[in-house]
Design a protein that fits this description.
By secondary structure, the protein is of the alpha/beta class. It has 21 helices and 25 strands. It has a five-stranded parallel β-sheet, with helices on both faces. Strands 12-13-14-15-16 form a five-stranded mixed β-sheet. The longest helix has 17 residues, at 37-53. The protein is globular, with a radius of gyration of 25 Å.
Length: 600
């Protein structure tokens, strides 16, 4: 694999690969169509020329407000080739939130996917420095330029225009240096206000060089791009797949993913843990509909558990029982993921041992990794030849790790950013006096160099008795149960921990019907004594695995599903604890109303 210095080196690797299927994208009729490497080059060149005509040059900012689609990649590569800084914005943000980021970044051009996104930007345009809005969909929209008009004629069939190279364009792209800013990514994480993470070409490129070391990925492979491209994990993945000269298939909506899996049959699957958790819950939900299927799944999982060591080492067991379980159950699970995936990777949040073990028990080894937007993002990753369940793998070769006295992980490396937008580099609140970046995560390294991340430092709960509780491992234990959709542990500065639980309503409603429970609303359902008793049994089961000070003493079932749309989850499907604590302040207060007299 080449040693990339800038992201433009990756673009030129794509452009010169002479591949007919560099990208797969759906057309207006819903059919998957290939986009060749030559077409990518010609479209990028045409779009870069349009930016130049508008006077947009090196160091200027353009925004991309879109779901995952091929136009996102072309706009990104065009900006990078010009030395322009692109600002990805989550399409789920409100008009007001979007305006804040557009104004703060000083973006001159916004590329939007649809009329809905256009109207969001147009409604607050006066608050921004926008000079042009480009719309990707073929819709007549006032005061917007159509994306197709900017690349018109770039790769017309029957001509060799798409094969032509533009020496001036190429020279300009090659002149971009590793120290030049590539992107400005706003992140608020699970708490706080948005901050612009400044990443250079060199930050991301050096990380791409190392993130897939040990993975045998080449032109015959494919990966579906469905995680939000506004998130660095998804964007880094696309760059890495392009660098390996494999195919990227763009899926614009999560609800289209099952159909995309069936059509594309990806060989590489990268997802946040919540996606894997949902797949597991759907398998268990379907099995729960039939006593025979329920027993079959239980037998298959138990059979796989006895072969966990072999799966962890990348082997396929050969025992008759495992082969039978594979034929009856495991293949169907893999089939839901397209049936051809060779690598399963998780990142963006802790996977959790329960989820890792369950997938191992059905023959799937999930290679967990870890990183932050500020680190471009990969710091550590398990790979096919170096894997340890429960860890996030060994740090990448250029990443140095140090565990501070309070357990916080500190890192150094060429992939680590220098500072946030409009803030001084290496600010003391982000870096120590020796230049180590404070990740904000609690972690440790084992004797063999594998890294383990326990929790976010700021999210640790400290009881009034002085005990520290890491909420994420406990929440992951709860979410391993079919009836639990999401869970949030609370109890900071109180005597004991409590939990807010958002049920998996699809499974709960099926379970309730089976039990003969009939209620008019979800609020009535979550308050029903039998339902509450069932969740208490789940709490008791989890508590049995915890230290006494960690145990959940009280819980409340909320009548809502937490989601990105309703505001409780981040785009990478992590809990927004601040939002949840504010939203359920009354319920949390009720947990501790008698604390003065309670012994916990």
């Amino acid at each position: 694999m080449p040693n990339f210095k800038t992201l433009n080196d990756i673009f030129f690797t794509v452009a010169s690969s002479q591949r007919e299927r560099a990208i797969l994208a759906k057309d207006a009729a819903g059919e998957w169509r290939p986009i060749s490497s030559a077409q990518i080059y010609s479209r990028v060149r045409a779009l870069a020329a349009a930016l130049a005509r508008w006077g947009v040059g090196k160091g200027d900012r353009i925004a991309i407000l879109s779901e995952n689609r091929w136009e996102w990649a072309v706009a990104d590569f065009a900006a990078l080739a010009m030395g322009v800084v692109d600002v990805p914005i989550y399409p789920t943000l409100t008009a007001e939130q979007t305006a804040v980021l557009l104004a703060d970044s000083g973006a001159r051009v916004a590329f939007v996917s649809s009329r809905a996104q256009y109207e969001k930007v147009a409604s607050t345009r006066a608050q921004t420095a926008l000079e042009q809005i480009v719309i990707m969909d073929e819709e007549g929209t006032p005061d917007a330029v159509s994306f197709s008009s900017l690349i018109a004629g770039a790769d017309q069939p029957g001509t060799d225009k798409s094969m032509e190279r533009d020496a001036a364009f190429d020279r300009r792209a090659y002149d971009v240096q590793p120290t030049d800013i590539a992107t400005l990514i706003y992140t608020s994480g699970t708490t706080g206000e948005p901050k612009g993470v400044v990443l250079t070409h060199g930050n991301i490129a050096c990380n791409v060089n190392e993130s897939l070391l040990g993975f045998d990925i080449s032109a015959g492979d494919s990966c579906i791009s469905f995680l939000p491209l506004s998130h660095i994990t998804a964007r880094h993945l696309d760059y890495a797949i392009y660098a390996k000269q494999a195919t990227v298939a763009y899926c614009p909506a999560f609800d289209q993913l099952p159909a995309a899996m069936a059509a594309i049959k990806p060989t590489v699957l990268v997802a946040v843990p919540r996606v894997y958790e949902k797949i597991r819950q759907e398998v268990e939900r379907r099995a729960s509909l039939s006593p025979v299927k329920r027993r079959l799944l239980k037998w298959a999982v138990n059979t796989g558990a006895r072969q966990r060591e072999a799966i962890s080492s990348g082997q396929q067991p050969s025992s008759p029982a495992w082969k039978l379980a594979d034929a009856l159950v495991y293949k169907k699970v893999r089939g839901a993921l397209g049936g051809h995936a060779r690598y399963f990777i998780a990142g963006g949040a802790p996977l959790g041992m329960d989820t890792a073990q369950w997938f191992s028990n059905v023959g799937i080894r999930i290679l967990e990794g870890y990183g932050l937007t500020e680190t471009s993002p990969v710091l550590a990753l398990n790979n096919p030849g170096s894997y340890r369940m429960g860890s996030v793998g060994k740090p990448l070769p250029q990443v140095a790790c140090l565990i501070a006295e309070d357990g916080e992980l500190l890192v150094k490396g060429p992939n680590v950013f220098n500072g946030y937008w409009k803030q001084p580099p290496h600010a003391a609140e982000n870096f120590d006096n020796e230049g180590w970046f404070r990740t904000g995560d609690i972690g440790h390294l084992d004797a063999d160099g594998f890294l383990y991340i326990t929790d976010r430092k700021k999210e640790l709960l400290k009881t009034s008795g002085g005990k520290l509780i890491a909420p994420q491992p406990i929440e992951n234990k709860l979410k391993a149960h079919l009836l639990v959709g999401e869970a949030a542990l609370v109890g900071d500065r109180h005597k004991f921990a409590s939990a807010l639980i958002s049920p998996n309503f699809a499974a709960l409603e099926s379970w309730s019907k089976e039990k003969g429970i009939s209620t008019a609303t979800r609020r009535d359902l979550t308050a029903h004594p039998q339902v509450v008793a069932q969740y208490q049994a789940i709490i008791d089961q989890v508590n049995a695995t915890l230290a006494n000070f960690e145990t959940i003493k009280r819980f409340h079932l909320v009548p809502e599903e937490w989601s990105l749309g309703s505001g409780e989850l981040t785009p990478s499907l992590k809990l927004k604890r601040r939002v949840i604590v504010q939203k359920y302040a009354a319920e949390i207060a009720a947990f501790y109303a008698d604390e003065a007299t309670s012994r916990g």
